[in-house]
Design brief:
The protein has 179 residues and is mainly alpha-helical. The chain is 50% helix and 8% strand. It has a two-stranded antiparallel ribbon. A hairpin with a 5-residue loop joins strand 1 and strand 2. The protein is globular and about 60 Å long.
């Protein structure tokens, strides 16, 4: 058995302790550094664990399990929105400013449309999994299942292209003018 003193003296302990468990995937490495990715991953895992423990009970999940699942989702295509295929902007991570958002409101929020975020989905077996999508899509999807969300998107497109709207998607009058 290797003891702590021998590991320290040969430098292996430092290497072992500094080894990153979840390295930034190559597909997003140019946009986000290791420290920022690690903070993002930890914050997302913590937030989802807190929420899911309220929903499903204290023993339902752990931060370690969620970190692994979220990292897997990033590795499996986290550079693109799972639902739209759009390239996500990982440079936006940790750039949100509350004061600026209060001042700029929806105009400010639109700048973060392609901010990578997390969504609960289901795999082929119907088991829960995480996917990476844009903030805009996640906001629009809300608590809908993937099937419900896709049905809603199809209904919007069907109505937009329907004879009732002349293929024009209904009224083109801006909301502010209609009021």
């Amino acid at each position: 058995m290797t003891n702590l003193k021998s590991l320290t003296s040969c430098g292996r302990l430092r290497i072992h302790m500094s080894k990153v468990l979840y390295a930034v995937p190559d597909t997003i490495k140019a946009a986000i550094g290791q420290a920022k990715y690690s903070r993002w991953l930890h914050a997302k895992a913590n937030a989802h664990v807190r929420r899911d423990r309220k929903r499903y009970g204290k023993e339902s999940c752990t931060v370690a399990l969620y970190k692994a699942a979220i990292h897997l989702a990033v590795c499996e295509g986290g550079e693109r929105d799972f639902y739209t295929g759009e390239m996500l902007n990982w440079e936006l991570v940790s750039k949100w400013e509350n004061a600026a958002s209060k001042e700029g409101r929806s105009k400010y929020k639109r700048r973060f449309a392609l901010l990578p975020t997390l969504d609960h989905s289901l795999n082929e077996k119907g088991e829960p999994k995480f996917v990476i999508c844009s903030w805009r899509v996640n906001d629009a999807k809300s608590d809908l299942t993937t099937t419900e969300f896709l049905a809603l998107c199809e209904a919007v497109l069907k109505y937009r292209d329907s004879p009732e709207t002349g293929g024009g998607g209904g009224s083109r009058t801006p909301v502010r003018e209609a009021l």
